[in-house]
Each structure stands twice: as C-alpha cells, then as structure tokens.
Amino acid sequence: GEITTFLAPTDNLTINTGGGADTVNIDGLNFGLSNLFEIIDQAPEDDTVAFVNNPTTLTSGRLNVVASNIDVTQDLMIAGGFNFGAGSGLTTIQGSIETVGSQDFLDPVVLTGNASLTATGTSDDIFDPFTSGRTRFQSTVDGPFDLSVVGGTGDADLATRFEAAVGTTTPLASLGIGVASRTFARVSGNVTTVGDQSYVNLIIDGDIELTSTGAGSFLVSSTIQGFGSGNTLRTTTTGTTTIIGQVGTGALAPLDELSITTGGPFELIPRMDGAPPDINVRNDLSITVLDTPGDQDDFIVPDQPRVVTLSSESGRILLDVGDDID
Asked: pTM of the prediction?
C-alpha cells in the first residue's frame, strides 16, 4: 500500500481516496488540529475506514469521515466531536468513544460489542458542533450489546437524538441514556431491548413503543414530555417500571396518550426537591401491572409525601394494578 507522511499539519488535514474499493486504517493516531481532520471517499459506496489496533486521539479539532463502511474497533477520544457516514453505508462501533463536541452518525449503526459514548460539551449553541455535546443517530441502531450514551445537555434540539428505530432488527442488550439532570434523550422511533432501558429526561417525538423482550426494567429518573403535540408512548416489559418526578406537568408538554404495561412493581418516586410525582396526559392514561407471584407489591407510591397525581385533560384514566398497593 501507499505510505504518506504529513509534516505536522496544524489547521486542516484532508485525505481523499480515489476510485475503486479502498481501505483506510487508522492505527493509534495522537495529534491535534485547530479545525478539521477529514477522510473523504470520492465514491462513497466503495471505501472502508477502520480504526484498528490502538486507540485514536485527536486532542483538538473535529473528525469528518465520509465512507460507506466505518468500523470502530478501538477507543476514540476526539475533542471536537465527529461526523460519520455517507448516507448510504454502515457504521459499526464498540468500546469507548469520548468527545467534547457532538457525535453525529448519518448511516445505520450496528453494535459489534458493548459501546459507551460520552459527549461532555455544555454549549447550548446547536450551530457549534465543537462544543455542543450531543449525540445524534440519524438512522437505525441495532446489535445484541449494551449501549450507554452520556450527553445531550440542552433542549430537544440538543438532546441525544434517536431519529429512527432502535433494536428492531436485532434488539440491544440494554440502553442507558445519561447520568446528569440536564441529560435529555429525544426518541423518534421505537426502542427494543432484551434488558434494561434507563433515561434521565425523555422527550417523545411521535407514536413510540419502548419494549423489553426480556424481564428488563424501565427507569426514567427525572421527566417525560412530548415534542410538541400528537405524541404517544407505550412501554412494555415483564420487569419493573419506575418513574421519578414529572410526566407532562408544569412547563413540560404533555403526551397525548401514555400506556404502561409492566410485570411490576410500578413505582412512582418524588423528585429530588421532594415534590410528589405527577403524571398528566391530554387523552388516555393506562397503567397495567401484570400478575406477580407472592406478596410483591404491584403499585408503589412514595411514603413522604404520600400523594400521587394522575390527570387527563380530556380522556380516561385506566388502572389495572392488582391488589397489592403500597
């Protein structure tokens, strides 16, 4: 193959591949640029860009890869974030990917191992991808492994965004979004896992189903809201379901409909400030706790304050929660 030596670029570095099926292997790069490092396939249906053997670090600058096949098998640390994809290819990922800037996946993503994506930028400027710190999947995500995403520190436009189905072809093992109170996940397609799903602030954009095909648990640890109007959410698991805080109340846009089916228990927990949990929808609210053996509680409400508010603006509230309420 060809060997090219670059003499200490400082601003931009662009690698243009030619015609035919080329492979570009990135093995343990560690450098920085003030602007962009780009790898661009001139015929994007042909080439493969693979991150192999050793971690890659871009101490400053942003990475832009345009290729039909992008294969990440090593850890990435890219200060300014990245754009991956050509619009007609496939990106495979595993391991740890850390950025300050945004992480943008244009093509379908397949997990080939457990993956942890962290974007630490806190800028609320959506037009500054170097510091905005969001993760965006513009196509499907599949693969029988765990996916953890930390980022999305702003509103619906700066949230971690799933713009297509997750786990429809091959369910994920689990999905965890966020660890901080300002972490938002905007979901625009159905999500299917075998195991757990956890969110901090969940924004529902469309007619959405969240499903665990195993006995996975559902946890929302801060808020649930709709993106505008006309949004519905259905969750299904034989495991537990826990909601902490508010659903469609106060300044949060309510869902049109919410349907929860869980193996139990279903638990509502107060927010960190001690305010009681509230659930408000525009139309129907349905909570079903499946029969559970033994003396396990089916519906758990907080001890202090022992108040739960369930409200519908113009629909019905349907509760089928067994006979064990604590």
From this structure: 0.92
